Amino acid sequence: MVRECTEQDRERLYEYLKEEAVYNTFLLADIADFGFGQSFQTVYLDEEQGRIRGVYLCIYQNFLLYCKENEVNTEFLEQLFAMYIPDVVMGKTEQVRQVQWILMDYTLESRVLYQFSERGELAEETAGILKAKLDDVDDIFTFLQSIPELKHLYTSKEMIAGRIEQDCGTHYIIRENGVIVAHANSTAECEWTTMIGGVATARAYRGKGLAGQLVSRLSREILAKGKIPTLFSSRGEEDNLYGRIGFRKIGEWGTLARIAASAPDEEDNTEAEDARAERVQEENPQVEGVQAEDVRADNPQEENPPAECRQEKNPQVEGVQAEKTEVQYRTSKRRPSYIALYDELYRDIVEGIYKKDSLLPSENVLSEKYHVSRNTLRQALAILNQDGYIYRKQGKGTYVSYDISQKEKGRIYNFLTEDALEEIVKITIDHNLGAPTLIAKSKLELDRGEEVLASNNVYESEQGPIGQSFIQIPEKLLEEQGIDLHSEQQLLSFMNRGIYQLSSKADMMIQLMEADEQVVPYLKVKPGTVLLHFEQLLYDKNQRPAARIKYYFREGKYQIHCRL
After folding, report:
1. What does the buried/exposed string (b/e) look like for 406-418 if buried means 16 or more CB atoms within 10 Å of the residue's CB?
2. Which CA distances in Å does 260 have to 68, 146, 399?
């Protein structure tokens, strides 16, 4: 069961997260700083028979997760991400990698996580290390903007000033002839650990140990508070330096970020600046060069607004009973604005207003045309991209991938029967009628209260199972076609052939995946077995979603002839 946390859960969360406090510095810090019930932060607890399986936290458009036994609840995340689209996902690399199967258009970067130990010797400090003050903000901003790997994270002087003024992170600098040549700061801090980040050295001053001095100064202060210094790095050459200072590797930290398309013109470059996240988690200290930063950026539309005004609360997902997982959420009383925009853009694309391979107008133009904010527009575009209607070209913009001319009758068929390399001798179905998952509700465009037929269908040759489909069909469509819901023969015939004959268009996503508990019992394969996976959305002649189908193909059993 997944549920939203309240103040009563605080101590339980602390006990669970502090077992690996170094990995959970951000989670612990955010819970300590902002608690529960905030407009910009929601904490979810996944538990089973009193045992905590995982913790998930949404803060603005950033998502953090931790599962001690690596039991990531992908069913819950699939439903959550249908309503809430994160900019960044962070956690242990092996756990974030599981999320990547859901967020296919995101890129994963893994970094080494370091923790200070008693071994080693902190670097000697010079008299040139200065604790930054408000008067230093302009110079700090200018310096960080000169570091290519940092400039996109430090886009706000107000953010830097706010950190210094509110003492929610110490910034240290080294100047040469009045100019900043090195910088580092402390960021997220919980009861047990503190993260070091923002480490950068001007190119002409690298190799002089300045970064090591700054990291050492921060480490001494953190240790004096009885806490453990931690940091990230992706550069192997820093191992010796960190080893000398007293840090040791303890694991890997993963960051899953949405693939951003560079704007084709100056106007869109301005939009990219406006699109920065409200909070970017700390990443990758490059001791002689770059360090990403834990940033609570300012609102691009107003200077230094109060936190509760910056971001609408993360959309809450409706209650759903998922297979093997009971999920409980707050009910959302209104449809997210980006879903309505998604529908309008979708209609314009399929009706040919935007032609295949044509460049969509800039975000400014689209926002004005559809009377929505750019944040709402980006969320709708993200779903259209995931669903295959648009695609992005780095540095050029967003293009239409849907081809209105490809509507030949009979081109849509069941891969599991027609492309099998072995004769199908048996098909079994395991079906039920009930409430849809949220992602099915969204993709099938169902109204409140509508039910769906959900069925796991297994296709077998003489040698046993070779393929499986999980299909969801709206109940009202079955009723329109006169299908007897109590007749397994009619249901099988419709799911195996009829739904394809009814469909005039299909969208499809293809990927490799490892067999999990939703597949293993049906295909009789070992957990982790690599399978080819298709997800297909079928539409009838009226362009209504008719079915959502997930296909799973065993290795060597199929040769797909994609007749599109």
Report:
1. eeeeeebbbbbee
2. 31, 21, 14
What distance in Å separates the CA atoms of residue 278 and residue 42, rounded to the nearest whole number? Answer: 15
Same domain, 249 and 288: yes
Same domain, 167 and 100: no
pLDDT in the model for residue 268 = 35
Q: Which residue has the tokens 């070091």?
A: 196
Single pTM value for the model: 0.46
Assigned token pair, 116: 């200070």
- Please check whether residues 90 and 235 belong to one and the same domain: no
The CATH number covering residue 369 comes to 1.10.10.10
**353-368 residue pLDDT tens:** 888 888 999 888 898 8
**Comparing 243 with 36, which gets the higher pLDDT?**
36
Which CATH number is 520's domain given? Answer: 3.40.1410.10
Q: What 3-state DSSP class applies to 400? A: strand
Query: Residue 154 belongs to what domain range?
Result: 116-308
DSSP state of 497: I
Q: Judge if 156 and 285 occupy the same domain.
A: yes
Q: How many domains does the chain have?
A: 4
Tokens of residue 103, six digits? 């967020």
322 pLDDT above the threshold of 60: no
How far is it, in rounded angstroms, from Cα 173 to Cα 184?
A: 7
The whole-angstrom separation of Cα 132 and Cα 134 is 7
Q: Is 324 helix (H, G, I), strand (E, B) or coil?
A: coil
In a domain, residue 315? The reply is no
